[in-house]
Amino acid sequence: MTGLSDSFQRPINYLRISVTDRCNLRCVYCMPEEGVALMAHGDILSYEEIATVVRAAAEMGINKVRLTGGEPLVRTGLPQLVRLIAEVKTIDDISLTTNGILLARYAAELKEAGLRRVNISLDTLQPERFRQITRCGELEDTLAGIEAAHAAGLEPVKINVVVLAGVNDDELTDFAQKTISDGWHVRFIEHMPVNGDDSGLLKLVSVAEMRRRIEALGQLEPWKADVGNGPAKYFRLPGATGTIGFITPVTEHFCYQCNRLRLTADGKLRPCLLSEEEIDLREPLRRGATADELKTLIEKAVASKPKGHRLAEGRQPKGRPFSQVGG
Ligand code: SAM
What we know:
Blueprint: E1 4-5, E2 11-12, E3 14-18, H1 47-59, E4 64-68, H2 78-86, E5 93-98, H3 103-113, E6 117-121, H4 127-134, H5 139-152, E7 158-163, H6 172-181, E8 185-190, H7 207-214, E9 221-222, E10 233-236, E11 244-247, E12 260-263, E13 268-270, E14 279-280, H8 282-286, H9 291-303, H10 322-325
Parallel strand pairs: 3-4, 3-12, 4-5, 5-6, 6-7, 7-8, 8-11
Antiparallel strand pairs: 1-2, 9-10, 10-11, 12-13, 13-14
Helix pairs in contact: 1-2, 1-9, 2-3, 3-5
The structure holds S-adenosylmethionine.
S-adenosylmethionine (SAM) binds near residues 23, 69, 71, 192 and 322.
């Protein structure tokens, strides 16, 4: 293993894989109600093709893999992919980002296949509001998914909340309270103005403002818990066993510590979530490229990682919707 680093000396050891562009929800800030144009099934990488990419990447120093989407659990047989990735000896962390709707059905099987932990996206604790934000989901399904994840030992279970002014920001303390009452690890994420979203309705709530409101429950103490190796800054409320994290992709971007590459469901390697650049791996994979050829392409993607995004200046990436790149 050589270890990868980009032109800005950032070590790259993390691959996020979007296994499908399909989703069983239509969250207002992520997808239009009618959905987006879907990829043809034949354009989507097979599990074996994904595993081939993982094996090549692992030989170059990638040791963490996250499965995402779309909604990864709508793809049939996901545990089979987890199993293939778990066979790659140097991958020491396989995680999943999911809306949790189908998790109760698959949590135990995923754990048994080698999945280590899950992040569950949940933007409200109110059933009616859940229906409004997701346009078609039931809160109780995601809550059952969270319980099943704990029961299966997919720890730490992290709850990701995208905070939207005027939509769910009145629930900041309800979520924070869950870190005391239920030991939840909650991460509040700034809404990113992408997907051509200039509605003006989905306004960002600054972390300073989030903290101010949460501190109605007590002072937040910085917490260096073993709950993350990503960009969140963690805190604890007095008496809590869970943690509160803040992720600030817009106001305080963390591109300087970005350690990621992304693989889209149709086999494009993306050096950055928020740039349009991508390198095709599907065609080389399907004409039988060698591991060395794949590694050259992976190196090329790493070399082209941009220094940072420019969302704060109002620059939105064009091209694919967020749901296709795997948030
Ligand atoms: N379906 C899975 C889920 O819900 O976690 C995985 C894919 S989803 C695109 C991944 C994450 O991206 C979710 O937590 C979602 O809330 C977040 N997301 C989508 N659009 C976003 C935006 N504009 N700003 C911030 N986060 C966003």
